[in-house]
Amino acid sequence: MKNLMIIAAVAALASQLAMAPVGAAETEKVFKFYCAQCHGLTGKGDGPNVTKDFPVSPRNFTNAKEMNKLSDADLKNVIMDGGPSVSKSPMMPPWGKTLNAEEVDGLIKHLRVLCKCKGKQG
Ligand code: HEC
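That is the input. Now the predicted structure with heme C docked in place:
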């Protein structure tokens, strides 16, 4: 009986670890690798990939006014499914097949740090 309880405790701990959110340092790497070339290292929408003939500028994540129009769920949708899924430009690629849910959640938190805003609630 005692052994069973230990096994249960270890299993519970392991599942908690598996669900642990991606840390801030890890998220920054993900952001630098996948997002910064367009959105810029500091999120101002001025990444090296962006040229004058981009039909639309990548979102400036430091613009709290614009970022507050989007809820966390909105951010998740556009990150997972790309610009066209929310009637925005296909220049914003879908990441749902590249990034896992924890990475996307980490990115959403990172964007909220960049905009210093909480976003639309609900
Ligand atoms: C190839 C360039 C490119 C890359 C790489 C890119 N984006 Fe974008 N992103 C854009 C563009 C362009 C827009 C603006 C789309 C529009 O306004 O129509 C955009 C818009 C957004 C928006 C705002 C959507 C809205 O409703 O206003 C979010 C959030 C976003 N990107 C997150 C990310 C994240 C997170 C990553 C990295 C995983 C990323 N993007 C990588 C180009 C890019």
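The chain has a mean pLDDT of 91.
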